[in-house]
Write a structure and sequence with these properties.
The protein is mainly β. The chain is 0% helix and 49% strand. It is globular, with a radius of gyration of 17 Å. It starts with a strand and ends with a strand.
C-alpha cells in the first residue's frame, strides 16, 4: 500500500509500506500486519540504466531529481563540483537488507581526497549507507542502530589500475560486504538494522560526510532491499 510523506525541500512524495504491513491513518504509520506471499525473485527498488534518461526503470516509478547530471551515450556524467541525483525514496528507511550495485568509470589515480559515489548523510545526521572512493580504495560504509546507539562500520577494498569499476555494497542481517570486481571484504557481527537517516539518497554527493563531489560517469546503478 502507498502513502504520502512530506519531505522538507522536496514536498509530498509517495512511499510504499514495507512488505507485510499496511498504512493505518490513526497511527500515521505502516502498522497493520497482513499476510504476504514470498516473492519468487529479488527485484530492484531502483534501476538506473541511463539508456535515454535518468528515470527509474525498476517499474516502481521512483522519483529521481537530476541536478546538473548529463545523460549521454548510456552514461550519467558527473562534473565533480555541482552534479548529483537525489532519490527521496530512501528517506527514513531502516532495512535489515540492502544491496547497491554500481558500474562506473573514474580517474581515481588523480584523486587528492575521497569522492562520493552515493550517500544519505547530507542532512547532518550521519549516513546509514555510503560509498566513496579514494586514490587507493573504494570505501563502503553503513550506519547501524542498536536500541538508541548508532554505530558506523567501514570496509575498504583496494583499487586496481582499471578506471572501469563494478562495485557492490551488501548489508544483510548484520553482515557488511564490499566488493570491487573480484575483490571482496567482509565485516560481520554488526547490528542487524541500518539506522533511519532523515535524508534522501544522493548519488555523487554527501555534503563532505563521505567525500567530495563525484567526477566520473555511472553506466548503471541498482538498489535492492533483498539479497
Amino acid at each position: 500500500m502507498q502513502y504520502e510523506e512530506y519531505i522538507v525541500g522536496l514536498g509530498w512524495i509517495s512511499r510504499p509500506c514495507p512488505a507485510g504491513l499496511l498504512y493505518v491513518q490513526d497511527d500515521c504509520e505502516c502498522t497493520k500486519v497482513v499476510a504476504v506471499s514470498k516473492p519468487s525473485a529479488c527485484t530492484p527498488e531502483i534501476y538506473l540504466p541511463f539508456n535515454n534518461s535518468h528515470y527509474d526503470q525498476s517499474g516502481k516509478n521512483n522519483y529521481i531529481l537530476n541536478e546538473n547530471v548529463v545523460v549521454d551515450n548510456g552514461k550519467a556524467v558527473f562534473n565533480g563540483y555541482n552534479s548529483q541525483l537525489v532519490i527521496p525514496r530512501f528517506t527514513n528507511v531502516d532495512p535489515s537488507t540492502i544491496v547497491v550495485k554500481v558500474l562506473y568509470t573514474s580517474d581515481h589515480e588523480m584523486l587528492t581526497q575521497p569522492q562520493t559515489i552515493l550517500s544519505n548523510g547530507n542532512c547532518g545526521q550521519g549516513s546509514s549507507i555510503g560509498i566513496a572512493e579514494s586514490y587507493g580504495s573504494v570505501i563502503f560504509t553503513v550506519g547501524t542502530i542498536t536500541t538508541n546507539t548508532i554505530s558506523s562500520a567501514t570496509v575498504p577494498v583496494y583499487q586496481t589500475a582499471s578506471h572501469e569499476k563494478d562495485i557492490v555494497l551488501s548489508f544483510n542481517q548484520g553482515v557488511l560486504k564490499g566488493k570491487l570486481g573480484n575483490n571482496e571484504k567482509v565485516m560481520d557481527h554488526l547490528s542487524r538494522h541500518l539506522h533511519s537517516a532523515r535524508c534522501a539518497l544522493h548519488i555523487g554527493n554527501s555534503g563532505n560526510v563521505n567525500g567530495g563531489w563525484f567526477k566520473g560517469a555511472i553506466e548503471e546503478l541498482s538498489i535492492y532491499l533483498c539479497a
